[in-house]
Design goal:
The chain has two domains: about 180 residues, 2-enoyl-CoA Hydratase, Chain A, domain 1, CATH 3.90.226.10; about 50 residues. The protein is an alpha/beta fold. Helices cover about 45% and strands about 15% of the residues.
């Protein structure tokens, strides 16, 4: 019997899709799968024509968490950092259930689209564990009050609550329609501008003095304005036409 490939990597035009492929274990994150994801995301940075990365799961659920038999906390930390640091927009397309380490995975992404029947949760406390590795990423999406409730009880919650919490970009019935609509919106923006926006939002620039902050932001906008993409964007606006990347 052929060995199952832990991660299916597909490319269609400018979109790279990573499919978790450990369906027998409900796509539990193991060492091989996480290693393949990190390598794929790192490699994607070499292709200037790529516009986004989609992470989704095969089978009945998106991700049941970490595989406790094949899991190293340090490797999960590296994976979540790789996703966060990725210069391309990242989209988690979620269905079935998303638990534990899977919650860290989607919260490291820029956008989360979830099927209307999806259940989310942090079951770690029910086996005497804590969601320590994923905490920095989940806390960027969910406020501390609700996190305390979910972490301490291990209770699961659905898409309506997830949407109210601001966890989701949106929910869907037809996954391809929802995904294509989001990708269409992303493709309307300049790729280099999006890379700089992600870099800016993930920086510690707001901790700097007002003088240093103003200077750095002014330098950044001048750099963008004088660049090839910025010049094309300004020209297209003045000429009342679409920029060359929005075709």
């Amino acid at each position: 019997m052929a060995e199952t490939i832990p991660l299916i990597v597909e490319r269609e035009g400018s979109i790279l899709t990573l499919r978790l492929n450990n369906a027998e274990k409900k796509n539990a994150l193991n060492s091989e799968m996480m290693g393949a994801m990190m390598a794929s995301i790192s490699e994607s940075q070499k292709f200037s024509e790529l516009r986004a990365i989609v992470i989704r799961g095969e089978g009945s659920v998106f991700c049941s968490g970490a595989d406790l038999n094949e899991w190293e906390p340090g490797q999960l930390q590296e994976l979540l950092k790789e996703i966060t640091d990725c210069s391309l927009p990242t989209i988690a397309l979620v269905h079935g259930s998303c638990l534990g380490g899977g919650m860290g995975l989607i919260c490291a992404c820029d956008f989360i689209l979830a099927h209307e029947d999806t259940k989310f949760g942090f079951p770690e406390v029910r086996i005497g564990m804590i969601p320590a590795v994923i905490f920095p990423y989940v806390s960027r999406k969910i406020g501390s009050g609700k996190l305390k409730e979910f972490f301490l009880t291990g209770n699961r919650f659905g898409v309506d609550i997830a949407e109210k919490l601001g966890l989701l970009y949106g929910k869907y019935n037809e996954e391809e329609a929802a995904l294509n609509k989001l990708i269409f919106s992303l493709k309307r923006g300049g790729l280099e501008a999006q890379k700089q926006i992600k870099k800016l939002l993930d920086s510690n620039i707001l901790s700097k003095s007002r003088e240093d902050l103003d200077l750095e932001l002014a330098n950044l906008i001048n750099l963008i304005k004088e660049g090839k993409e910025g010049q094309e964007g300004i020209s297209s606006f003045l000429q009342k036409r679409k920029p060359n990347w929005d075709r």
